[in-house]
Specification:
The protein has 416 residues and is of the alpha+beta class. The protein has four domains: 2-86; 90-183, Beta-Lactamase (2-Layer Sandwich), CATH 3.30.450.20; 189-264; 266-416, Histidine kinase-like ATPase, C-terminal domain (Heat Shock Protein 90), CATH 3.30.565. The protein contains ten helices and twelve strands. The chain has helices at residues 2-43, 46-86, 105-111, 122-125, 130-142, 185-227, 238-262, 274-285, 308-328, 382-392; strands at 90-94, 100-103, 146-155, 158-171, 174-183, 270-273, 294-299, 303-306, 334-342, 347-353, 396-401, 407-414. It has a five-stranded antiparallel sheet, sandwiched between helices. Strands 7-9-10-12-11 form a five-stranded mixed sheet. A two-stranded antiparallel ribbon has the order 6-8. The longest helix has 43 residues, at 185-227. The mean pLDDT is 81.
Amino acid sequence: MTQSAYVLLGLTAMVAALVAVLTFAVLKFVAGARQARRHLRADGGPEGDFVSSALEEAIARLKQQEAAMSARAVASERLSSQIVESLTAGLLVVGGTGRVEILNPAAHRLLRVGAAEPGADYRDLLKAAPALREVMEECLATRQPIVRRSVQMDTPDGPVHFGVSVSPLGDARDPAAICLFSDLTNVIELEEQLRLKETLARLGELTAGLAHEFRNGLATIHGYSRLLAPEGLPAAYRPYVLAIRQETETLGQVVTNFLNFARPEKPLLAPVALEPLIRRATDELRHELPAAATIDISGEFGRILGDEVLLRQMFGNLLRNAVEACETAGIRPQVVIEGRVDQGRRTCRITVSDNGPGIPEGDRARVFQPFFTTRSRGTGLGLSVVQKIVVMHNGRVAIGASPAGGACVDVSFPAA
């Protein structure tokens, strides 16, 4: 699409230049012919009348040709404008001194900017997209084309990924450049989802058998420990038997949880309204929460295609993690769940924020790894299960910081 756009723009410019040259030549010829006709009329005679008539016919034909060329010039300009307006990719043409010459509607939409003022500087226009600005600066400085480079622009709705191609125009004395860029966010997110699905599938295949053997061994140890009656043992040995039972039960539960996590699942997809589902997940968890804990739910949540049971489990894990993080830090839990529907990107976005200690930035990329935890208690599988369920629904999940200083989990799903 980029090469086609370049070819169309180039052909349009060539046609416009040719029409201008021909029009100038015609006007010059007409002026000369009129002057010659005046001289012939002044001289008089049959020959003069004949030549004058021939010149008038030639002038009439030239006027017709001039009108036709003018019409073609208008049509060429209209076609050029239509090409620029209809491009789905963003088009930015920068002239000398960095002024913006062309910014098409797709570029306005992708960059989230209004109409550029005449003579505006591209550096001011691209303040919100520094990576794209740097690519333009590189092309203008080196006079070398840049092809299919990936850059990111941060927005309130999350990062947007662009595929960018820039080519130099003009010469070194008056450097200019043409930039075509398109939104690759959906493609990159899809690649990430596929990569996560493959990783989870490999993890399940590699570990399911091993975890099953561990569970069998733990069950045997636990069974033998149950045969030892503590009351028949010396008092000094009784605590050891009870400790063996307790630890094997705990480890057995961890292995069972991991098997549930590693087991391949196929969601039963159906239209689901997210707000009542989240409220139900919250109500089911109320009996586990401290009385002082508060959970506020607000916003627009929309509908998705999902497995209601798995989604309730996912939101239950998020709420449980948020409350436990606050309790561990000795803070009264205050959890906020907000929903928003992005009609442009057709996504339902849910954020779960708390007022706990938060997650260090260096740990945020690891929190979805199985058994990774920042707390002294817990299996470290809660957020791994969350990610697995989100990926099964073709969604995405990310960890950040909440306005209250705690953690903020951002989940988005394709809208139904």
